[in-house]
Amino acid sequence: MLILCILEQGDSWFGIGSLFFIRHWTFDVRCSMLDVHLFIKGIMPGSKATNHQKRLYRNRVQPTHLVSFTVTVKETDLSICADKALGADARELVFQQRSIIESFIERYPAFLKSLQPWKPPGPAPRIIGDMADAGEKAGVGPMAAVAGAIAEHVGSGLLHRCREVIVENGGDIFLKTEDPVVVGLFAGNSPLSFKFGIRIKPENNPVSLCTSSGTVGHSKSFGKSDAVSVKAKSCPLADAAATAIGNRVGSKKDIKQAMDFGRSITGVTGLVIIIGDEMGAWGDLELVPLGPKKG
Predict the structure, then answer these.
(1) Enclosing domain of residue 75
(2) Partners of 180 in the β-ladder
(3) Would the pTM count as exceeding 0.70?
(4) Who is most buried in 49, 73, 112, 249, counting CB within 10 A?
(5) CA distance 214 to 99
(6) CA separation (Å) from 12 to 22, 48, 88?
(7) Under 8 Å between Cβ of 262 and 268
(8) Count of domains in the chain?
(9) What CATH number is associated with residue 238?
(10) pLDDT tens by residue, 230-266
(11) Per-residue b or e along 30-65, where b marks 16 or more CB atoms closer than 10 Å to that residue's CB
(12) Closest Cα to residue 231, out of 244, 241, 221?
């Protein structure tokens, strides 16, 4: 799962983790996508991307009004921006949520292994229920939602202590901000990588954007898309849906049927599919072109 965020926080691109920040609009064109399909071919050759790009931009200049920090606990590697320094709080939240998931897996190993929807046999902790519900709606196993679930539960927990937060977990993003946010998509070797973004208005958040890729990263995917990005209120749902939709993209001809499937998932409000030099988009999305990096 791989995505890049671009926030309006400066004239040049800078940031940490998978997060970039831009203060002023420098784009001449805005494309509002609502219940339409858009296909684009042959837009600008791009440079090749490598799997390490997910973490390429950490340790760079910090955003001007948000505090940036990372939290790593076992496989969980979060890049977080908030209006307060909350690294210790975030780490404690990660430990709490991972402990819940790990304990549940010890008791019910099928929760970890199932590639199909799996319902808890009885009452379950909230994060477990969120993952199971997301998997059921998307038609995949509950662990397809784990990264998104951790991002949302950590982000929601931090919002008890701050007003703004962005949590990125391997490309799955939960955010609540007071200013517009543009999320720019990284699609591996596709010439469409970094060429456009999705604008999120503050009145529409908290919101989640999750991306699955069959060509970039280590996450399990049975498809060959360069990127499938899903917008939803629920981060676990966006995560599971991105995986399920991506599994249906074996070639460029699969874009439309995969989008039709994504539209049928309750709770999904927008999606973008990229494979090679072709793209499909649907939903409550405002697409903006991204200019070259400055500085």
Answers:
(1) 5-289
(2) none
(3) yes
(4) 249
(5) 29
(6) 6, 22, 30
(7) yes
(8) 1
(9) 3.10.520.10
(10) 999 999 999 999 999 999 999 989 999 999 999 999 9
(11) eeebeeeeeeeeeeeebeebeeebbeebeeeeebee
(12) 241
